[in-house]
Amino acid sequence: MEASRMLPRQASEIDILRELERKVLWLSSYMIHHANHESDRGDGLKVGGHQASSASLVTLLTALYFHVLRPEDRVAVKPHASPVFHAIQYLLGNQELGKLQNFRAFGGVQSYPSRTKDTADVDFSTGSVGLGIAETGFASLVQDYVHAKGWNPAWPKGRMIGIMGDAEIDEGNVHEALLEYWKHGLENCWWIIDYNRQSLDSVVSDRLFMKMAALFENLGWKVVLLKYGKLLQAAFAEPGGQRLKEWIDDCPNQLYSALVFQGGAAWRRQLEEELAIHPETLAIVRRHDDAELARLMTNLGGHDIEAILEAFATAPNDQPVCFIAYTIKGFGLPFQGHKDNHSGLMTKAQMQELRAREGVNQGEEWDRFAGLSQPAAVYEDYLRKVPFVQRGRRGLKAARVPVTPFPKLETKGQMTTQAGFGRVLDEIARAAGPLADRIVTTSPDVTVSTNLGAWVNRRGLFSLADHEDVFKKRGLLSPQKWEMSPKGQHFELGIAEMNLFLMLSALGLSHSLFGERLLPVGTLYDPFVCRGLDALNYACYQDARFIVAGTPSGITLAPEGGAHQSIGTPLIGMAQDGLASFEPAYVDELAAIMEWAFDYMQREAGEDKEKRWHRDEKGGSVYLRLSTRPIDQPTRTMTSDLRDAVIDGAYWMRRPEPGTDLAIVYTGAVAPEAIEAAGLLSEDRRGVGVLAITSADRLSAGWHAAQRSREHGDKAASAHVETLLADLPRDAGIITLTDAYPEALSWIGGVCGHRVRALGVEHFGQSGSLSELYAHYGLDVNAILTAAEGLSGRPVRYRFLQK
Ligand SMILES: Cc1ncc(C[n+]2csc(CCOP(=O)(O)OP(=O)(O)O)c2C)c(N)n1
Ligand SMILES: [Mg+2]
Question: What residues flank ligand 1, with Cβ below 6 Å?
Answer without folding.
Answer: 53, 56, 78-80, 128-129, 165-168, 194, 196, 198-200, 329
